[in-house]
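ok so for the tutorial part 2 we go from a plain amino acid sequence to predicted structure tokens. step 1 is just haveing the sequence, like this:
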Amino acid sequence: MSRNTRVSACVAALLLQVNVLLAAYAGAGLLVAARLWWDPSLAAVTRAVWPREHAASSALLPALAAALLLLAHAAAAAPSRRHLLHLHLWGTLAVLVLGGAWLGWLAARLRAWAGSPAAAPARDAAAAADHLQPLLDLLAKYLPVTDTLQDVIKVREQITMGDRRQRC
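step 2 — the prediction. this is what the tokens look like for a chain of 168 residues:
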């Protein structure tokens, strides 16, 4: 077996693994896009509070995921053809750059919203959760429903603690 044949076999095996990862990321992107459209707990809130961001994310996320799937299939179709490998490389880089720009824009918009007066009800609700804990502890003796509310409060506290650690 010549050196060139071994290198080609290694590149083909590596490309197969990259394609599997791209397909997994594309599937995750499609899953999140579906949640943005049909999950009432996420879709209703994002449409009401951040309509522009919701519309952009609902259009861009499935498009980026579909592009990743198409790139993975194009490269898997003929891994020995050089122009398809270049298409795969540059297409994947374009998807990554566009996705990074979109996430940066989304993070900046949400950070601006968090500091605005429009976010005051959300901040008040988060502060009220500290006062709800003793009441939930009392009600937990009689109603099992409060366990779900306590889990939500614990998750919120973990997120808040993570934000505080990042600021320090």
